[in-house]
């Protein structure tokens, strides 16, 4: 998975923790994920993450509560996947 996807998830987490109204925070987070919604990025992510990014972008302006839940799931899944990949890469580097 491209590191940029994890960076956008991290920035979306910051957006979602802000003091602004939920609708505004969701729009900010959706805009972060729109940067990684091209096929180039989606092909590098696990299928469920790519599908959820596509779903989130398609929901823009609709059902704020559902979008907020999907953003939460995406942030968790992306950062967990990135940590797994980074850990495996670090193990390979230390071996050799």
Give a written overview of the molecule.
This protein is an all-alpha fold and 96 residues long. It is built from five helices and no strands. Helix 2 (22-34) crosses helix 5 (64-95). The longest helix has 32 residues, at 64-95. The mean pLDDT is 93.
Features:
single chain, 96 residues, mainly alpha, 5 helices, 78% helix
Question: What share of the residues lie within helices?
Answer: over 70%
How many DSSP-defined strands?
0
- Label the structural class: mainly alpha
| Low-confidence region ranges | none
Number of helices: 5
**Shape designation:** elongated
Largest sheet: none
In round numbers, the mean pLDDT is 93
Question: Summary?
Answer:
This protein is mostly helical and 96 residues long. The protein has 5 helices and no strands.
How are the secondary structure elements laid out?
Layout (H helix, E strand, L loop, with lengths): L2 H14 L5 H13 L4 H4 L4 H12 L5 H32 L1
Helix pairs in contact: 1-2, 1-5, 2-5, 4-5
């Amino acid at each position: 998975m491209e590191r940029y996807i994890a960076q956008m998830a991290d920035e979306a987490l910051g957006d979602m923790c802000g003091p602004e109204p939920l609708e505004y925070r969701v729009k900010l987070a959706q805009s972060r994920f729109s940067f990684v919604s091209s096929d180039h990025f989606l092909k590098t992510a696990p299928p469920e993450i790519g599908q959820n990014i596509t779903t989130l972008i398609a929901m823009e302006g609709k059902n704020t509560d559902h979008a907020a839940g999907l953003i939460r799931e995406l942030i968790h899944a992306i950062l967990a996947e990135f940590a797994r990949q980074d850990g495996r890469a670090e193990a390979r580097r230390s071996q050799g």
